[in-house]
Structures are given as C-alpha cells and as structure tokens.
Write a structure and sequence with these properties.
- The protein is an alpha/beta fold.
- It has one domain: Leucine-rich repeat, LRR (right-handed beta-alpha superhelix), CATH 3.80.10.
- It is 48% helix and 9% strand.
- The protein contains twelve helices and nine strands.
- A nine-stranded parallel β-sheet has the order 1-2-3-4-5-6-7-8-9.
- Strand 2, helix 3 and strand 3 form a beta-alpha-beta unit.
- The N and C termini lie far apart (43 Å).
- The relative contact order is 0.06.
C-alpha cells in the first residue's frame, strides 16, 4: 500500500497505474479507492485479474462518484458479480469522465448486467464497454437493446463468450436499426445460429455506423451466411465481418461476402481521403471550423487522420 501511495503522489504526476495480476485483494482496493477520491492525475487504472470482489467494486464505485480524471478502468476477472456491477452502474450515473470500462470474466448474469443497461440510457461519456466471458443472456439483451436505442456515445460493445441466443440477437438487431454511434459489436463464441444471423442481417440493411461485427463461432450455416451476403448488397459501412469457426460450407458465399467488405473498406478510405483534402482546403481558406459546426462527427474522425 505504501508503494501505491508513493506512485499516486500528485507530485509524481502519474497518469497510468498497472496492478495487473497482483492479487491486491479487498484491503488494498479500499486503500486505492480512497486515494482516487481526491487524485487528480490518474487517467488509466488496470486492476485486471485481482480479487477485489463485490465489496472492492463498491469501494471503487464510491471513488468514481467524485473522481474527475480517471478515463479507463480495467476490472477483468475480479469476482465482482451482480452486486458489484450494481455499485459501478450507479456510479456511472454521475461520473462524467470514465470512457472505457472492462468487466469481462466476472460472473455477471442478466441481473447485474441489467443495471449497466439502465445506466447506458443516460450515461454520456462511456464509449467502450467490455462484458465478455460472463453469463449474459436474453433478459439483459432486451434491456441493453432498449438502452442502445437512445445511447449516443457507446462505440464498442463486447459480448463475446456469453449466452447470446437468436432471441438476444433479435433484440440487438432491433437496436442497431436506430442506433447511430456503435461501430463495433463483438458476439464471438455465442449461439445466435442462422436465425440470429438473419435478424442482424436485416439490421445491417439500414444501419450506417457499424463497421465491425464479430460472429465467429456462432453455429451459423450457409443459410445465415446467405442472409448476411444479401444485407451487404445494400450496406456500405461494414468493413469487417468475422464468420470463422462456423458451419458455412458454401465457399462462394464467403468469397462474395469478403468481396463486398473489401469494396466497403476501399470506399471508406477514399471518402476519408476526400474529407482530409476538404479539411486542408478549408484550413488554407481559414474556414476549418465551419465543418465542425456543420458535422462534428466527420470533423472529429477526419481530424484524427489529419
């Protein structure tokens, strides 16, 4: 604990703290949380694979209610469970700085994940939510889908290795029809099957923001692949679709899908080049801020490249 205190001394201006695999336990988690309540320099905290449990999560949640600098919190494999998830979800209702939260492999079931879904309806800062390798199924997917219909900040959602069935895929697909911010959806190692692929394919016909969809190892066969291929005939934004480790035997269908994904990727690169050229021209004319007010999303995405 003395070492942590020294590391977080504001005079040292520590911005990142990695305590991965340190087995810090409950007492140290409480000590760390107390420091976070007043610390003004730490932006990234990695507590991956420790043993803080529900109570440790409660201590950290309390700190998040007042902390104004932490942006990334990794709590993968910490035996947090549903109760700890509830504490963290409540903290996110008032926290305005955390953008990345990893709660993977924490034995979280529908009950705990439901609290996060409710928070997503109003939270305006979280952009990446990692919930892989838990026990999340149909009930949470329904609440999550409802949250995604109104959430305007989440860009990456990881639900790999859960209990996502074709019914869950239907809820998620419905949300994708209206959601305008999610760019990556990871459903690797679930159980959506051909019917789930059909629901997602229908959403892809109208969705214009999703660029990456991972459906690896989801019991999808030729019929599911056919639904996805048909959706890609009109979809112009999806550039990555992982269908490996499924039961797709029609190789021509895979070739067709990959060909369309490549076209989407090429067109995206061309559009980006055109947008950058426009930014360069506007800067020459002293009018670069005009695009920011006209379309802030394009402005930010181009600025990253530019």
């Amino acid at each position: 604990m003395d070492q942590i205190q020294q590391l977080l001394d504001e005079k040292l201006l520590v911005k990142e703290l990695n305590l991965c695999n340190e087995r810090i336990g409950l007492q140290c988690a409480q000590f760390l949380a107390k420091i976070l309540e007043t610390n003004t320099t730490l932006t990234k905290l990695n507590l991956r694979n420790n043993q803080i449990g529900n109570q440790g999560a409660q201590f950290l949640a309390k700190a998040l209610e007042t902390n104004t600098t932490l942006m990334t919190l990794n709590l993968w494999y910490n035996q947090i469970g549903n109760q700890g998830t509830q504490f963290l979800a409540k903290a996110l209702e008032t926290n305005t700085t955390l953008t990345i939260l990893d709660l993977g492999n924490n034995q979280i079931c529908d009950q705990g994940a439901q609290f996060l879904a409710k928070t997503l309806e109003t939270n305006t800062t979280l952009t990446i939510l990692e919930l892989g390798d838990n026990y999340i199924g149909q009930q949470y997917a329904q609440f999550l889908a409802k949250a995604l219909e109104t959430n305007t900040t989440l860009t990456i959602l990881n639900l790999q290795g859960n209990l996502i069935s074709f019914q869950c895929a239907q809820f998620l697909a419905k949300a994708l029809e209206t959601n305008t911010t999610l760019t990556t959806l990871d459903l690797w190692n679930n159980h959506i099957g051909d019917q789930g692929a059909q629901f997602l394919a229908k959403a892809l016909e109208t969705n214009t923001t999703l660029t990456t969809l991972d459906l690896c190892n989801n019991h999808i066969g030729d019929q599911g692949a056919q639904f996805l291929a048909k959706a890609l005939e009109t979809n112009t934004t999806l550039t990555t679709l992982d269908l490996s480790c499924n039961q797709i035997r029609n190789r021509k269908m895979i070739v067709k899908i990959n060909k369309k994904l490549k076209i989407n990727h090429t067109n995206k690169q061309r559009l980006m080049c055109l947008q950058i050229q426009c930014l360069e021209k506007l800067e020459q004319l002293g009018r670069i801020d005009e695009i920011k007010s006209f379309n802030p999303i394009i402005y930010e995405s181009c600025l990253m490249k530019y």
